[in-house]
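G., the chain you wanted modeled:
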Amino acid sequence: MSTSRESEIVDAFLTLSTRLADGYDIVDLLAYLSVECARLLDVASTGLLLADERGVLHVVAASSERTRQLEVFQLQREQGPCLDCFRTGEAVAVADLRADADRWPVFVPAALSAGFASVHALPMRLRDQVLGTLGLFGARTGSLGDDDLALGQALADVASVAIVQENAAADRETVNQQLEHALRSRVVIEQAKGVLAQLGGLDMADAFTELRGYARDHGLKLTDVAAGVVDGSLSSAVIRQVASPR
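Predicted structure as tokens:
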């Protein structure tokens, strides 16, 4: 591993630990983590899925819009490596999607059409409870090395700790409450993205970038800004400001 990459990994974990210590918006943190996973592991894109108290998976973060759409497609069709990872609690490695077309006959063509050639799915877990999965989507065939898989699992574990806040003390009820909070927050953010996309003529990815940028520039939580956009508690002038690409 090169010195520069080691430094990038250290910086990423320092940033994550600082946010955990200082207080954080869970969806914003997971969005940051998904982007860092893609960058540090040299994969095309990543997606984070979380399960609600009924065990139903939802997309809570993705480093690109095409990944978010593919993850939604996977959930709708109830077929794909991330679903298998969640069901078994074990990592799923797919070095060449074309070779596994028979295993996931609906998912594989959609993934190939989106520009992906390989997928690695890692479990997000707390002791014996699987909270969700981290999907790593590659634009080329090939398996990730052991070091990269270990780093990916470490990042997935950080996401799990962030969700439950206190890993060692969290019971199942607390975990479910934190999961529900994260999922409700994500719904509000998706609604706010839609409002901003319509007002500013943006695509959904750019709408999220503007929403997140405004929250950071003003020291606000991403979920609070999104809620203000949706319920109108932010003035119309402010909402249009958020919708204006910088």
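Strands lie at 45-51, 57-62, 92-94, 118-126, 129-138.

Shout if anything looks off.
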